Amino acid sequence: MRFRPLLALVLALCLTLVTACSGGAKAVDRSQLTYDQIHNTGLANDCPSLPDSARGSIALDPGASYELREVCLHPTEVYVKGEPVNKRQEAQFVAGKILTRYTTSLDQVYGDLTVTGDGLNFREQGGLDFQIITVLLPGGEEVPFTFSSKELSANAEGAAISTSTDFSGSYRVPSYRTSNFLDPKGRGLTTGVEYTQGLVGLGADSDGLERENIKRYVDGTGTMELSITKVDGNTGEFAGVFTALQPSDTDMGSKDPVDVKITGQLYGRLEQL
Prior knowledge:
Blueprint: H1 4-21, H2 35-38, E1 58-59, E2 66-81, E3 93-98, E4 106-116, E5 119-128, E6 130-136, E7 142-148, E8 150-156, E9 160-161, E10 166-173, H3 207-213, E11 220-232, E12 237-247, E13 259-272
Antiparallel strand pairs: 1-9, 2-3, 2-4, 2-13, 3-6, 4-5, 5-8, 6-7, 8-10, 10-11, 11-12, 12-13
């Protein structure tokens, strides 16, 4: 009995050494797990991965129809463009800490892939294509934004999916707030009031307070690059990294957005129709 704590310590040390020598934890194949094994573990937020040996390519027929399916975008780093220290310096991107847990990835995104005379064109059609995310900046400021791939139209050179394929294009960024949202003073777009009644005597309908009082549904536009670094020609799977640049939340038009840069992991699968 008295040797159990010592035995547990030795086993823990051995496990640590084995993990360190093996290069860390390996990616988990979610298709082999049950719901109970995934629930509340964070694994659902991860994208599937491919081995480093997946260096193939997939040739595409210009006369055939293709789809990209099960596209997954998992943000790993978020940067927010801050104010310049002085007029002589340009604004710099500052790394932020992602506060949102387990629900940051876009998943099961799909769309049409067309082979044109100029290369490839991907047009997103749907899926779990937006997520609400908040990041914390070093100074304590919280920056919310809607990470999205809605209506993404991206082009790439070539007539095949390979480890040198790079898609780039633009997409729509939906408003962080919906039309039924009410702020703490009861102001909203389709419900509530346009201004706080107690401020009427202070000129609440003046131009200075118009942005706060009159709510608007503000869409934005982002740009995204998808860089494919791994391809499995047998299964049609591909993986890589992505970089997106988009605006942050505007609080329904009451403030100016800031630029947000998101980088992370990419996964998807090519399917011929």
